[in-house]
Amino acid sequence: MYKMRYCLIVLGMLFCLASTATAEVNVSVGIGLPNVRIGINVPLFPDLVPVPGYPVYYAPRVDANYFFYDGMYWVFYGDNWYASSWYNGPWALVDPFVVPAYVLRIPVVYYRQPPVYFRGWYRDAPPRWGERWGRSWEQRRSGWDRWNRSAAPRPAPLPVYQRKYHGDRYPRFEQQRRLHGQSYRYEPRTRVVREHLRQAGQRPAAPPSRERVDGPASRGPQRQENLQRQAPVQVTPQRREPGFDQGRQRPVQREQRAPGGIEQRGPEPRVLERGGGGDGGRGRDRGPREDRGGGEGRGGQGREEGRGR
Fold this sequence. Notes:
Layout: H1 2-29, E1 49-50, E2 57-58, E3 65-69, E4 72-77, E5 80-84, E6 92-94, H2 101-104, H3 129-140, H4 173-183, H5 191-201, H6 220-228, E7 257-258, E8 262-265, E9 268-271, H7 278-282, H8 294-308
Antiparallel strand pairs: 1-2, 2-3, 3-4, 4-5, 5-6, 7-8, 8-9
């Protein structure tokens, strides 16, 4: 009885440790998978302008709190932060504890749709996130609003390749991941961004699409659904010539020989075998590496004559 109770206590402690470790891992990543559609629609690649003195861009013509930092787009919407590697999502919800410091430091004046509680705050200073998110957040993110302004890093390059993808040509998530990896070689400096991109890259891919992203036939999900509903292709049986005998093979067409002694006989190529008499004896259809010996060649010729009969 005592041993059983001791085992239960040990198992309970191990379970608690595993749960704590899992929670720490989830918090350390802090950005979910891009699967959220928010109430912001950016139909074209936006004009992005650098924020003076910050490695951040903002979009003055987008009616939203829309920014670009460290290779990703950042949106503050509905009292939450979202991130995406493409300008119109899908978006991933970001934990407030892991929002990059330079995103938090963006001055209030660059928020195109500031929340009501921003009123009364200095326009040239960052929002007072500690007042909004509480003492626990402020303790964990202590020092986020203090930095050397003269040593700010350079802004990340803009993914301008995305300009040609808009409207019906805007790619789905699996296609976004492939195109982004091929066209944007920037390496993020922020650990949470690197972890998010690695996690998003491990997401299982969807079944292969029948449409190309960059082709004229791409017309979005509705066209994809229509393609899948098309009737199956009906194959018309070939018409046989009069007097065709199923027990006899069709005569060999010597004109359709492929390089290396391979001739086309119906649907599958067959390698000609060397033998004594007939065409094999003349050596016209010999391949460069088909020397298998005289006995084997004679056997192959016998088999050919048997099929002819």
